[in-house]
Amino acid sequence: MSEPARLQCPAAGELPSAAPCDERQPAGRRTASPPPAGPSPIGRVSLPETVLHWFGWTFGCFYSTYRLYDVIRRHPDALDAHSSPGWVAGLSVDHCDDEFEVLIKGQLATYAVFMTIHLVVGQFLHGMALNKVVPLFHALLAAAYLCFTVGVRRYALLLAVALAMFGSSRLRSRPLSWLLVAVLLLGHQQLMLAVVGPDLTHDAENRTYLATVVQMWNLCRAVMFCCDQADQPPALATHDNVVTFLGFVFYGPTLQGPLLAHTDYLSSLTAGGVAAGPGWPRLRRLLLSLARLGGWLLFLEVSNHVLHYHALIYSPEDMHRLFGRWEIAGLNYWAGQYFHVKYVVCYGIPCALASFEGVPTPLPPRCVSWIASYSDMWKYFDHGLYRFMQRHIYRPLCGAQPSAGRRMAASAAVFAFVFAWHGLLPHILVWSVANFVCVTVERAGGRVASSRRGREWRRVLGASLRRRCQALLLAPLFLVSLVSQAGFLTNSIAVSWLAMGEGLAPASACDMLVTLGFMYCGCQVSYDVKRWRQQRARLQRADSKLKQP
């Protein structure tokens, strides 16, 4: 396999910021005093401007999609080696996306059978008040599932690593636990090769890839347990045992993500399905969620019959010959859309199952088309991973009174973990470094805006003009984030360099101005969506207050 564990591109608010995820402002009367430090309400722009922004961004997305589709339609010879006959109107299907083929399609039937057993037996145990047996059942069922899907030897490695992490938790030392995680991340490939051997068959590669994905998530869950044990909250004192640890680390629905909080899993052991409500309404919600996710799964399958961009990635010489700026833009746009929908399914099914059992779950991934700030991308795409990195990496390194240098060092540590966790590959390094630079620049801009002089300028400019200036300043960063994520989304360093060359070094200054104009429109569209979300949240809070007795 070309990549050990490329799982997600996270989601938004400033990753290295200690600010809470909810950045909405409390309602209140406006005064003439300078705005307070921190995030400010998003201003409005005129209706003609809004129409122009949405038209420009939508036109860019549709036109780049047309250019990508036109290349695929006119050069089918570049796809023949990496596609096969499909079932949609005689079209060929692109089967080169390992995540979709292995993690979703390849596991769907087996996952459905084991998760049905998981839900039925789990609800029976809760109904019989056998909550202490539930973690043992979770660990045993996961063992059966993993032995069936990845093989006994790979499962033995997963179990050995988990037990090693549990042993480190006995020492109640955060640094020691993280040191062990670092060693396991850096040595994972060597460990897997030593256990499995040089088996290069396609089935063995798929099993190794699936085991690697599970291993990366297990390491996050295990070190979360270790850190919680180091802090030793009173609520965790009765759950400090190997059975509960293995039940949490090998919790069936989320073996392949997303990341649940340790305390949320423990709360479900005491409440069971009771916390989520009566059985039939929960079952109805589960079935409706699965039906909706089935529709997105069908969308992914149909899109693989129409846009064969994964197959094109395996022909870098054809990409260099056929692709220009617009084709690269279309590839990047659809890679982002496909990635988002894929993780809506990958995370949606486990979250639906966990919610049925009363386990609190992270927020679903937000559409990447409406997010221009890369710090926002980290907060809102993979909310569970974001919370984990905030709580267990960034904040402990920052300390109680962090300086600017300490914040930057903590951010560097976060993105070093991101690089190692997603896979020690060149395109992951490019993407991680670009993430660090973009988020650091955004935070520096936020510090300037929060200074005394910055607050004075914000008061003078007003909300609308301030929004325009922010979009102008954010447009170049938005461009850098888009071209850097091309290699990550396509799992190709060749695409990464091609996107950077076309996006950051255009043929003329006019091309660059046009590109930045589209980026400006994208930033304004993201502000509109963010503002609408804030308004909806305020209305929901007001409505909930009215309903209170």
From TrEMBL:
Keyword Thylakoid belongs to the record: no
Keyword Transferase listed: yes
Predominant location: membrane
Family, per entry: Belongs to the membrane-bound acyltransferase family. HHAT subfamily.
Membrane topology: Multi-pass membrane protein
Protein name: Protein-cysteine N-palmitoyltransferase Rasp
Record key words, sorted: Membrane, Transferase, Transmembrane, Transmembrane helix
Chain segments annotated as transmembrane: 108-130, 136-164, 176-196, 471-498, 504-527
Record InterPro entries: MB_O-acyltransferase (IPR051085), MBOAT_fam (IPR004299)
Top-level taxonomic group: Eukaryota
PANTHER family: ACYLTRANSFERASE (PTHR13285), PROTEIN-CYSTEINE N-PALMITOYLTRANSFERASE RASP (PTHR13285:SF18)
Cellular compartments per GO CC: endoplasmic reticulum; membrane
Protein location: Membrane
Start and end residues of each stretch annotated as Disordered: 1-42
Species, as recorded: Amphibalanus amphitrite (Striped barnacle)
Molecular function GO terms recorded: palmitoyltransferase activity
